[in-house]
Task: structure prediction
Amino acid sequence: MSSKNRSFAAGLMGTLDEVAPQPEAPIRMPVGILANRENRMAELASGAVVGRAIEQVDPARCRLWSEHNRDYAALDETRCGDLIESFKAQGRQEVPAIVRRVRGVPDVDFEVICGARRHWTVTWLRAHNYSDFRFLVEVRDLTDEEAFRISDLENRAREDLSDIERARDYLKALGRHYGARQKDMAARLNVSEAWLSRYLDLARLPVDLVAAFNDPHELKIKHVTLLKPLLKPDDRARRVLAEAGIISKQQGEGASLKPQDVIRRLAIAADAPKKSGPPKKSGSADPVVTASGVPILRINGRKGKEVTLTLLPAGGASRSEVETALGAVLDAYWPKPPV
Result:
């Protein structure tokens, strides 16, 4: 820069310094607030956090998503007691439910994807002298498949949803959202194919087989590995389903068998039924059964002069049938002396 230009610049700066008013001291915000805001903006800019709309709405203008797996009609003060007390103590709902906006439907603004118990609780409170309560929701723009995955993530942390309820949800979603492609579904849910397969196998158990259990919700994933082999080939499946029908009837008449007892009976029925009466004196592990195939006892074998029996009281045979079978065993192994 020439000396002439430097002199001009210096004069200009000097003039500015003389006439420009001094700025007032800036108003300082707490460092924590600035830091938090800067961090939040940085997270939003990087995509680590997505800003979403949080609203307080009228629960009466919300409906449950058609694929929601919560039995809303079964909710009551007992099932939602923990939330009722929590909401009262806090004076509000702390954790928002996840919803998506509904358009073109009169009287409905939102569809609840996750948060049926929270919706029920706020509705109940508003009807019981807490009319100022509002339903806290997080509004998201979701496809049905995205809604299913979000719902599934929440369900995995819940202990009050049974294995069979979850399994049935997966089976429905497999066709609705993944074109029956199990591999694609496992990838989207971030689970192994083997893990997903066990749930789908549970959901595919025949209705007549599930009816044999006093409470289907007691069926667990671990039971699938025991039940699935009983349904192949077809002749075994027919015997197993026939026995399941007998057990279901007995359960309805007041009997209450545990799942392991039901599975044991079904496993016995899977083998071809034997004729009523004792087996040959050589002994075998096959059970003695009634004419309808209900197991009574098992001849475990004969060793020397001893015969070992195993009674099967959970088999479902009547006492008279057991007494008849025992009499036949005695006749076979302990003949009556000649008169």
Remarks:
- Confidence is low (pLDDT under 50) at residues 1-35, 43-50, 279-284.
- Residues 144 and 177 are 8 Å apart (CA to CA).
- The longest strand covers residues 295-303.
